[in-house]
Design brief:
2 domains; elongated; 75% helix; mainly alpha; 20 helices
Length: 493
């Protein structure tokens, strides 16, 4: 079990509070998009809509897979993830949370539907860049997972285009197939829609709320997991719920992988410490692998085999050794992933074996979300949805188009947003509910020839364009400040 000092307890409470605060802000900042259509088409009263949406956000979080959470963690600098319990690791966590909350609150206050996903990812890049400048032996940009950043940025860039185009096309298709004029005209003032229209819009609101919870909620889960791994490594560094059968399978597969790695490895031996340094350097750099990389991976893989030994549960591993084993598993898994994706391993059979070992055996040992984390994030996101929603709802419902939102426009935009977010969730990609839905509303306004309000669109686009660079700067500055406080005020090295 972990034994905590008073300082560690204070840090743990503060960090968890800030992580849940981020999700709370995310709730009223992002989820307001889900309720905008049902409120402005008068399908539900505002207080009913936000409570309903909050409940479905909660359900979405509880049933999420965790893929997006670990996709977010993969963006973080390797050395900070491996040493999350250090002063630099704690500084990273606080920098991410502080910068994300600052920008989200600022754009919420101005009523701008900016993206929490862009905010967090910009902060992560800022932390990585600042760390590469501060840490010894680095060149600028080292440590940032640029490949993963590019993949994530593509998803964030493409999803609004999908929202705009598909929502517009869906509205046109609806007009062709469903010839009901009341779907495409401004709703009568203070008169609720017919039951069948109301049912459709409540259904789409429910779907977007659920999808938002299952995708956006995972960002907070990833950060919370990082916090407890750093402060309580004996309890959370490894998945203590892994079965004895899975451990035996992992050990057997590891021996097979050892043979593959040895075929590509340089001759001679290397110490465990040297092997870790080689893998760390390989993961931080953009350079190519060498035979030394394979030799290092084989050496640490042997350490994993030895650690698992005849263990029937990961709880049999001494508490003090669990954090180190997690780091070794992370190093080997990340190295194998990079070797396969950069084309260093060309044999199809070997690539398949290495990829399967990483995904099916190594990842489940460290990638897990405790139930209490899911519940905490779900409650924070759900409560946030029920509070402070009005500013963003007003922008979505009244200020994007020149006319009032129609039933057909609301349904089209939400159906596309729901499908886009769910698809991203399946592939573990963080996308912006805000961008997809607000782009979808704009697309339906164009398709309906309702016109767009140039001033609002300019402000929204400006917020979108500024989010990444501003949060990169915020992440860099807050990381540097938090690092100074950790080192010089609290003496955490």
């Amino acid at each position: 079990m972990d034994t905590l000092s008073i300082g560690s307890v204070i840090f743990l409470i503060l960090a968890i509070g800030m992580a849940l605060g981020f999700e709370f802000v995310n709730g009223f900042h992002d989820t307001a998009n889900a309720v905008a259509t049902v409120i402005y088409t008068r399908s539900l009263r505002p207080w009913v809509a936000v409570i309903w949406s909050g409940c479905w956000n909660l359900i979405g979080v509880l049933t999420s897979t965790g893929l997006v959470a670990f996709g977010i963690l993969a963006l973080l600098p390797v050395e900070l993830v491996l040493n999350v319990g250090s002063g630099a690791g704690f500084a990273m966590v606080f920098a991410l949370l502080i910068s994300a909350i600052i920008w989200n609150l600022g754009t919420w206050y101005l009523g701008l539907p900016a993206s929490s996903s862009h905010t967090l990812i910009g902060s992560i890049v800022g932390v990585g860049l600042a760390n590469s400048l501060i840490a010894k032996g680095h060149t600028f940009g080292d440590g940032v997972n640029w490949g993963k950043v590019e993949q994530t940025f593509q998803a964030l860039l493409i999803s609004p285009l999908v929202g705009f185009t598909c929502s517009a096309l869906l509205l046109v298709l609806m007009k062709i197939l469903i010839r009901k004029p009341e779907l495409y005209t401004e709703p009568p003032k203070d008169v609720p829609p017919p039951w069948w229209i109301r049912s459709l819009l409540v259904l789409t609101c429910t779907g977007v709320s659920f999808a938002h919870g299952s995708n956006d909620g995972q960002k907070g889960m990833g950060l919370l997991l990082l916090i407890v791994i750093g402060v309580l490594p004996a309890s959370y560094a490894l998945n203590l719920g892994a079965s004895a059968a899975s451990l035996r399978t992992t050990e057997t597969t590891a021996v097979t992988i050892e043979a593959i790695l040895q075929q590509h490895a340089a001759s001679g031996s290397v110490s465990d410490a040297q092997a870790r340094d080689i893998l760390n350097a390989y993961l931080k750099s953009t350079g190519t692998a060498s035979t030394d990389t394979f030799r290092a991976a084989a050496a640490i893989n042997t350490v994993i085999i030895t650690a698992l030994g005849d263990k029937t549960a990961l709880s049999d591993i001494p508490s003090a050794a669990r954090s180190g084993l997690r780091s070794d598993i992370y190093l080997v898994g990340a190295a194998l992933d990079k070797l396969c994706k950069t084309g260093v391993v060309t044999d199809a059979g070997e690539k398949k074996a290495l990829g399967a070992y990483k995904k099916k055996q190594l990842d489940p040992l460290t990638q897990f979300i405790p139930l209490w984390i899911k519940i905490s994030v779900a409650v924070a996101l759900g409560l946030g949805t029920m509070i402070g929603w009005k500013r963003i709802v007003t922008t979505i419902g009244e200020k994007i188009g020149k006319s009032h939102l129609t039933y057909g426009q609301g349904a089209s935009a939400e159906l596309v947003a729901m499908a886009t977010i769910e698809a991203a969730d399946i592939y573990g990609l963080p996308v912006s509910t805000t961008h997809v839905l607000s782009s979808g509303i704009a697309g339906t306004m164009v398709a309906n020839r309702s016109g767009l309000q140039a001033a609002t669109l300019r402000n929204i686009v400006l917020a979108w364009v500024l989010t990444l660079p501003v949060c990169v700067i915020l992440g860099s500055v807050t990381f540097s400040g938090a690092l100074y406080v950790a080192f010089h005020v609290f003496g955490i090295k």
